[in-house]
Amino acid sequence: MAHTLPDLPYAYDALEPFISRQIMELHHKKHHATYVNSLNAAEAAYAKATTPRERIGLQAALKFNGGGHINHSLFWTNLAPSSSEGKGNGGVLKDGPLKEAITSVFGSFEDFKKQFNTTTAGIQGSGWGWLGLNPTTKKVEITTTSNQDPLLTHIPIIGVDIWEHAFYLQYLNVKADYLNAIWNVINWDEAERRYQDALAGKFKL
Predict the structure, then answer these.
(1) What pLDDT was estimated at residue 53?
(2) pTM, rounded to two decimals
(3) Which residues does the annotation place in the binding site for Mn(2+)?
(4) Fewer CB in 10 Å around end: N or C, the chain?
(5) Is Metal-binding among this UniProt entry's keywords (predicted)?
């Protein structure tokens, strides 16, 4: 069954002023759509491949475009219109199990955000910053992946795209400004759901 581009759960301009309509349209309609189309093409070619050499030759395309599709599908739903702009619930981490888990590990919510930003800004080239649940320790941890690699070592709670196409048209090369701004539109209700599902063994990509 072919993969399809998921609809956004909000309008393209709903995350303004923190993420512009122009970025959201290009990011969703062009970049994510390209990952979906390229993944479908790679899977179709893999299904027709008749030799190990052909199948091995398609692994990079499957990983890159499959990861891009997985990561962006998660990314759209872990964003929401900002509470500070009176548009929605974005940016508000309510009291609950996830907040307790974050403060237990990082000391405070503010300290967590600082550490997340520092770690994610330190990615060389393109990649993703993640808050994930370690399936062994059951603790939340900050980690990163390169390029479009999906998060496989942890269960993803939130992911932040640090590819230039996610921010350059608005923040130019100042990653720190983008990372500071995006906390205003993080959908912590969705993150809470993912966290509790992960603890219960119910999380699925």
Answers:
(1) 96
(2) 0.94
(3) 27, 72, 161, 165
(4) N
(5) yes
